[in-house]
Amino acid sequence: MFKNHPKGLYALALANTGERFGYYTMLAIFVLFLQTKFNFDGGQAGDIYGYFLGAVYFMPLIGGIIADKIGFGKVILTGIVIMFFGYLLLAFPIPFASNTDAVYTSPALWAMIGALALISVGTGLFKGNLQVLVGNLYDAPEHKAKRDNAFSLFYMAINLGAMYAPFAATKVINYVLAKAGFFYNAAIPSLANQFLTNTITPEGTETLTQLAVAQGAATTDLGTFASNYITSLSGAYNYGFGVACISLILSIAIYIGFRGTYKHADYNSKQLAVKNAKEGKVAEAELSPKETKDRIWALVLVFFVVIFFWMSFHQNGLTMTYFAKNYTAGEATGLTRIGFDIVNLTLLIVAVFSAFSIFQSETSKSKTISGVVLLAAVSAVLVNYTHTVATLEIQPQLFQQFNPFFVIILTPVFMGMFAWLASKGKEPSTPRKIGFGMIIAAGAFCILAFASQALQSPAALGGNVSTALVSPNWLISTYLILTFAELFLSPMGMSFVTKVAPPKYKGMMMGGWFTATAIGNYLTSYIAKIWGSGMELWQVWGVLIVICLLSATFIFAIMKRLEKVAK
């Protein structure tokens, strides 16, 4: 699986791992921060979340156009530096009082918006162009056959950073809260803000009083407790954002330190033409206008479909986080506890890759070493499990670690499956894989729709925590099936773009992939609006099911056209 790849793949993948670790640390707690600090409801937080994700994934189009003209390497480095300053600004805990300050004229809000703008611009210069460099590594004849494989590995590295992000955010939040004399409780932020803005009910006041007592606060001054808790938790989120600054420093170090491994792939079409002319190589025949048009249209059609995948998938940081906070039990028992311990997840990854290594190793010594590592990893998980408390308290953002974990352990399974199908001449085309991915995504939301049948609507809850809570396993199962969908669609789609895009427009077309993602990310906010509209909870998930199935129907309807271009 890892053999015979250029070293530049690993350097670029690790640079991206650091950047994604910071990004997903921030994203894991972003809407929780918006609701806590600014007292935004689900729709308002969803709007900001959607605009931000839209900007993050639209800007690679601009970054790709710039890189097509001046080169990829310098644009990527500039992007990392700009992102660093964005996260640094976001990490500053600027005071804001929800009961006195006007939200939309607050320096705290505008500083946050400025930080989000810097992160968006920096990501636009960095993200798509880095992936073009990966694609360029596989333009060489000896590596062309491994392009899809390479993007699966690259995608796995992205998710390695994403898996540890919610854990890092949670540890920082708990540490900062503990320093202030508090501990996290999902019910407090909403009730505290309601108390500070005089919108709380008598029942809410009674509940808040009980929660204050549990925190060790004096009930004679509930306003002071509410204000202090909001300030402390908001500041804890700021420190969580600061984790991204550290990870970006590591990304910069890797990107610069290992430049020699990918420098030969740092070229756009103009630079490649100059290089070939100097070396006396015959330039590849240019595409005809019709070929160029056909390729671009094929990509645009694929982009249209993936809009709706990302609109659905990126509910993980929005409505699925709301579901985790308001409808899911805040504790894990039994075997479920394994998944909420990052050490166990790491050991399970080691175990899975050791198992694959046993079958792929060519010598008995390597097989033996892999077997010993597998046995040690499984034993460590069992020992760690037996020493875990019987009831483990969990926080909403921790659910977001399951998707990247599943990506990492399932990537070798999918690679093996597609390799086996290819050896039989039955591997689905990339467009067909995307269609299958949309159907599977619909299945994932069927799980949440079933789990939500007897639950109150979000409007009826009013942002508070439900008295009827479902098992964490419902969300975990949803993340598992969504990961199946993602592995059919996302890495294959990136590979498809680098393979089909006309050489002159590689950066722009990769930017087009991210623009489609941007539109999908922006549309996530519409689901957040539906969330609080009075619609039943199962119906919210039903909207996403219908969207995914309609998208799958569309891509299968144009499959012949897409497969013709792909060949």
Entry keywords:
567 residues, mainly alpha, 20 helices, 74% helix, 1% strand
Brief rundown of the structure:
The protein is 74% helix and 1% strand.
Polypeptide structure, described:
- With 567 residues, the protein is mainly alpha-helical.
- It contains 20 helices and 2 strands.
- It has helices spanning 7-38, 42-70, 72-90, 107-137, 147-179, 188-196, 202-214, 222-257, 269-279, 289-313, 319-326, 342-360, 364-386, 402-423, 430-451, 458-461, 472-500, 506-531, 537-557, 559-566; strands at residues 331-332, 392-393.
- A two-stranded antiparallel sheet has the order 1-2.
- α3 (72-90) runs antiparallel to α4, α4 crosses α18 and α12 runs antiparallel to α13.
- The longest helix has 36 residues, at 222-257.
- It is globular.
- The protein starts with 6 loop residues before the first helix and ends with a helix.
